[in-house]
């Protein structure tokens, strides 16, 4: 489905280059994106799970620095799948698009109002923005390739994607306790080579180190704080948990509690409790034309 782009990369900072050959007629064709009553356009209905403003998903300032670096000196930035506005800098002119009405309504007043639109059909002119970003979002889109082509079309400079590398998501202790959750993640996240290929130009893939006290509560953020994932509200803030049934959650809860009480978790993974950062599946994909 995606054109192949060569990767010549190491684990930390990978580079790839390939021509962007999207036919012009494909870039603006009408696309059918299914929307829920709330307007949600991806594989999660935020009107139903309602986890947008979770106190467990606060932007982390150290991760924010990696995003800022990837955006460089861009002044005008498009944020696609902006949600409640995490990682939007007030030092730049940000245009946010967000399909879910409930998430748009939860954006703080200091941020720009988000436009109701979907990645696959952006209501902007060619080259309108210095840069564009999409954070923890591309795995939810119904057509990632179309959405990324749209981002490339409306952006003069870098397109920045914060996402997870699906080949790495299972390399995490959580896989021992809830394999179904990480199998779901591995299926949802598009391969990073497909992202760079869809964007064309010159792409880099950079591992983002996750801090031990990360404030943005995606699963790997709790690498050294396993007890946090015993809180159902913390789990609900990661959409993958909404794809599995109660049996998976109960099994996870029982087995992790057991291993924490018996000392088995500490014996095997306890070193993570003091490890300042964790290099897991979190990556920034960046492409320039
Ligand atoms: C996990 S949230 C991330 C929100 C925000 N970027 C953040 O980092 O907090 C995923 C977001 O992607 C949005 N989304 C899903 N499908 C989309 C699509 N086809 N086009 C644009 N946004 C989409 C969702 O509505 C949601 O806001």
Shape: globular
> What is the helical fraction, as a range of percent?
25-40%
Q: What is the C-alpha radius of gyration, as a whole number of Å?
A: 19 Å
Q: Kindly, what is the distance between the CA atoms of the first and last residues, rounded to a whole number of angstroms?
A: 21 Å
DSSP summary, beta strand count: 10
Could you give the order of strands across the largest sheet?
1-2-7-10-6-5-3-4
- Relative strand content: 15-25%
Instruction: List low-pLDDT spans.
Output: 1-11, 16-30
- Which ligands are bound? S-adenosylmethionine
Largest sheet: 8 strands, mixed
Mean pLDDT figure: 89
> From the 3D coordinates, which CATH architecture would you assign?
3-Layer(aba) Sandwich
- What is the CATH H-level superfamily? Vaccinia Virus protein VP39
In DSSP terms (H or I, runs of 4 or more residues), the helix count works out at 11
Structural class: alpha/beta
Q: What is the CATH C-level name?
A: Alpha Beta
H/E series, N to C?
Answer: EEHHHEEHEHEHHHEEHHHEE
How many structural domains are formed by the residues?
1
CATH fold descriptor: Rossmann fold
